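Handover notes (outgoing to incoming on-call)

Open items:
1. OmpR/PhoB-type domain-containing protein: sequence verified, structure written out, both below. Nothing else pending on this one.
2. Nothing else urgent.
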Amino acid sequence: MSTHTQEPPVRHPDAYAVVVADTVDDVEHLNELLHSNLPVLLVRDLDQARRLMDGDPPADPVRRPAPLRVSHLEIRPDEQRALWHGVPLELTAQETGLLARLAREDTGVVSFPQLVRDVWGASCGVDTTVIHSAVRRLRRKLEQAGVDVGIASVRGYGLRLAPPARKPSAN
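OmpR/PhoB-type domain-containing protein structure tokens:
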């Protein structure tokens, strides 16, 4: 009769975990769930993780891109923040990314495939129902915060930001 004891997992001395999370609290919660004592590398998004894994140097922290502005809405994609009249909005990183992608579009309309690639980081697996769901939540949050910049749907094609209508000047 042989007794088999389970050996502890072999860990490579250079092992670490890469975690995509919004906050350090998220990482600590994940560490508790995994019962892990691995070093953790916290990244903001999959693009940052890919750059680090590919060995690309981190962006120069001194030269941040200028915030994107639409009316009184300021979007800071590098900080994953959006502000309305200088007041931070309670948005997820994905919602901020969606706003930023729409604000960056020179032609106005961003197609659904472009949104999937640029916001969700995938070329497939995300259909328009996922996008519409995310947009519905984002619209609700913007409306609750009093933001007058909207998100307009271009049926069958994509989305665009809808800046507030200009009031006619009284002459």
